[in-house]
From TrEMBL:
InterPro entries: GAF-like_dom_sf (IPR029016), HTH_MetabolicPath_Reg (IPR050707), Tscrpt_reg_IclR_C (IPR014757), Tscrpt_reg_IclR_N (IPR005471), WH-like_DNA-bd_sf (IPR036388), WH_DNA-bd_sf (IPR036390)
Domain of life where this protein originates: Bacteria
Name the UniProt record assigns to this protein: Transcriptional regulator, IclR family
Keyword Cytoplasm in annotation: no
Organism: Arthrobacter cupressi
Keywords assigned: DNA-binding, Transcription, Transcription regulation
GO-annotated biological processes: negative regulation of DNA-templated transcription
Example of a GO MF term: DNA-binding transcription factor activity
Length: 260
C-alpha cells in the first residue's frame, strides 16, 4: 500500500509491530503470556494473537502449551548465531566477565546500547550463593536506568543527555517513578566523577548494581560491564574495590576494541 500525505505504509506498520512483539517476548526467557503482551504492546488482543500465530508458523516464536506463554523459537537462535559472527563481542567480553565474577563472587553482565536502551546480552554467574535476578540476557532498560544504562548515558554528549532528561517521563516509562529526573542527574554526575555507576536498589529494592562504560573507536560509550547482587555486598566500603575492577576490565575491553 502506498503512502499518502506522509502516512506510514501498512507494511512498515506491521514490521514495527512484529519487531515490538519479538522484543517483548525476548525480555523473559521463561516466556510471556498473551495478556501481558497485549498490555505492554498496546495492540488489540486479536491483532497480537494473529501476529504471534504467524511468527510461530515461521519458527520465530513458540507457544508453550504447559504454561500458556510465548517464547522465542528456533529460527531466532539460528539468526542470532549467524549475526554473532559479525559481532564477535563475546570473544572480547567473556574473559572480562569471568574475571569479574571470579574476583568478586557477584554476577557479571555485558550490555549493549540499542538506540535509547541498553540490552543485556551476556552474563557470568558469581560464586556467592545469594543472587539478584533483575538482570539476565535479553532484558532492556531505558538509558539512565540501572547501572549499565547510567554508565553509558553519563558519558554521552551533554545535548544527548539533555534530550533524554527533557522528556524523562516518556523516556523512562514505568521506571520514572523510582528514577525521578533529578535523582538521575545526580547519579550521572557521580558516575562522571568516579568513572563507574551505582544503582542503589532503584529497579528492585535490595538489588544493587554497579557499571562501567566501554567505548568504541570514536570514543563513544557503546557498551557496559556491570555487577549485580544483594545490598550488603555493595556497601560503601566495598564499592571502591568493585568500581576499580569494573574500570580495569572496561579499559581493557576499550583498548582491544580501539586496536590499542
Amino acid at each position: 500500500m502506498a503512502a499518502h500525505n506522509g502516512a506510514p505504509v501498512q507494511g512498515a506498520q506491521v514490521v514495527g509491530r512484529v519487531a515490538a512483539l519479538l522484543r517483548l517476548v525476548g525480555r523473559k526467557p521463561e516466556g510471556t503470556s498473551l495478556q501481558r503482551l497485549v498490555r505492554e504492546s498496546g495492540l488489540t488482543r486479536p491483532t497480537v494473537h494473529r501476529l504471534l500465530t504467524s511468527l510461530a508458523a515461521e519458527g520465530l516464536l513458540e507457544h508453550d502449551a504447559g504454561t500458556g506463554k510465548w517464547v522465542l523459537g528456533p529460527e531466532v537462535f539460528l539468526l542470532g548465531s549467524v549475526a554473532a559472527a559479525r559481532f564477535p563481542m563475546e570473544d572480547i567480553a567473556r574473559p572480562s566477565l569471568r574475571r569479574l565474577a571470579a574476583e568478586t563472587g557477584e554476577s557479571a553482565f555485558f550490555s549493549i546500547r540499542r538506540g535509547d536502551e541498553t540490552v543485556c546480552v551476556l552474563r557470568e554467574e558469581g560464586s556467592f550463593p545469594v543472587r539478584s535476578f533483575v538482570l539476565h540476557e535479553g532484558v532492556r532498560f531505558p538509558l539512565g536506568v540501572a547501572s549499565a544504562g547510567t554508565a553509558i548515558m553519563a558519558f554521552l554528549p551533554e545535548e544527548e543527555q539533555e534530550a533524554l532528561l527533557g522528556d524523562w517521563a516518556a523516556h523512562a516509562g514505568g521506571f520514572a517513578v523510582g528514577h525521578p529526573a533529578e535523582l538521575v542527574r545526580d547519579s550521572l554526575e557521580r558516575t562522571r566523577l568516579t568513572g563507574y555507576s551505582v544503582n542503589p536498589g532503584l529497579v528492585l529494592e535490595g538489588s544493587w548494581g554497579m557499571g562501567a562504560a566501554v567505548f568504541d573507536r570514536q570514543g563513544r560509550p557503546a557498551w557496559a560491564l556491570s555487577l549485580t547482587g544483594i545490598e550488603p555486598r555493595f556497601r560503601a566500603e566495598r564499592q571502591e574495590f568493585l568500581g576499580k575492577l569494573l574500570l580495569e576490565e572496561a579499559h581493557r575491553m576499550t583498548a582491544k576494541l580501539q586496536g590499542a
